[in-house]
Amino acid sequence: MTDTLLDVSGVTMRFGGLTAVNDVSLTVGQGEIIGLIGPNGAGKTTFFNCLTGLYVPTEGTVTFRGSVLPPKPHLVTQAGIARTFQNIRLFANMTVLENVLVGRHTRTREGLLSAILRGPGYRRAEAESREKAMELLEFTGLAAKADHLSRNLPYGEQRKLEIARAMASDPGLLLLDEPTAGMNPQETRAAEELVFAIRDKGVAVLVIEHDMRFIFNLCTRTAVLVQGQKIVEGDRETVQNDERVITAYLGAPLAETGPDQATGAAPVTGTDPTEADQ
Ligand SMILES: Nc1ncnc2c1ncn2[C@@H]1O[C@H](COP(=O)(O)OP(=O)(O)O)[C@@H](O)[C@H]1O
Ligand SMILES: [Mg+2]
């Protein structure tokens, strides 16, 4: 049994009359790769936003390394959780290297005064930051493009750069929101290797993804959200054979699922309630 790193307990997020996340609990252990799947609009991104302080959950607590996290993004980052976004958020007119340096910012000790005076302490810290940032670019395969503007990178590389930037804050847990969206199959396989390599560095990963092959190749455990509720959690067999999951993804009950409906979540509609990126 692994040590618990993240312990989410009964998180609910309501927007007016809409309950986007409904009493969801989840743990992530040290060094684990955990999947989070569900139809569009299921509440996956909202759940991430509740973990990272972008939203203050209506109910529930998020405990990381034994302490309850305050719902403030910079404090969450400082505590050791980093994330990427479903819709890429890079500084388009900064170079690749500069984008990673921004991610490093929370871990540098040198304060504003020292930056203004540009004393030896500042220069040392800056050199160290650049070295770390370059290491991360090597790690993600972007070193040759360190001086390129991030907006000029192809889509797949922008996603990798987001990961490099998130890793720059030295997280203990990395949250990835649809990291392979827009990638071709080859890039997706490479992204799989990257996630394994991140895990091998001792960083736990919680990943939202629609690509089932990606999810089941990587994750020891996967939780399924449907209409804000966690309907099942387990290994590949458990998830794939769960009739509520099949129903949720097909959008209609299967022919033989009649009696089991009593145990399941309400069937979701076939069309996605929202395509809106968060
Ligand atoms: N800030 C917000 N205000 C109102 N509704 C929101 C907000 N953020 C998300 N939602 C709603 O919450 C539900 C879940 O959305 P989301 O978490 O983006 O789903 P997923 O990431 O699983 O596709 C959707 O119905 C969405 O419209
Ligand atoms: Mg989402």
- Count structural domains: 2
Second rung of CATH, namely the architecture of the largest domain: 3-Layer(aba) Sandwich
User: What is the number of beta strands?
Assistant: 10
Strand content: 15-25%
Binned, the helix content reads 25-40%
Bound molecules: adenosine-5'-diphosphate, magnesium ion
What is the CATH superfamily of the largest domain?
Answer: P-loop containing nucleotide triphosphate hydrolases
Shape assignment? globular
- CATH topology name of the largest domain: Rossmann fold
- Strand/helix succession: EEEHEEHEHHHHEHEHEEHH
Order of adjacent strands in the largest pleated sheet: 6-7-8-3-9-10
What does this structure look like?
Residues 253-278 are annotated as: Disordered. This is ABC transporter ATP-binding protein. Keywords: ATP-binding, Nucleotide-binding, Transport. GO terms for molecular function: ATP binding. The protein is an alpha/beta fold and 278 residues long. 36% of the residues lie in helices and 22% in strands. It has helices at residues 44-51, 73-79, 96-104, 112-117, 120-140, 155-167, 185-200, 212-218, 236-240, 243-250, and strands at residues 4-15, 18-29, 33-37, 59-64, 67-68, 81-83, 173-177, 204-208, 221-226, 229-234. The strands form two sheets. Strands 6-7-8-3-9-10 form a six-stranded mixed sheet, with helices on both faces. Helix 3 packs across helix 5 and helix 3 (96-104) packs parallel to helix 6. The radius of gyration is 20 Å and the shape is globular. Residues 253-278 have low confidence and may be disordered. The structure holds adenosine-5'-diphosphate (ADP) and magnesium ion. Residues 15, 18, 20, 38, 40-46, 273-274, 278 line the site of adenosine-5'-diphosphate.
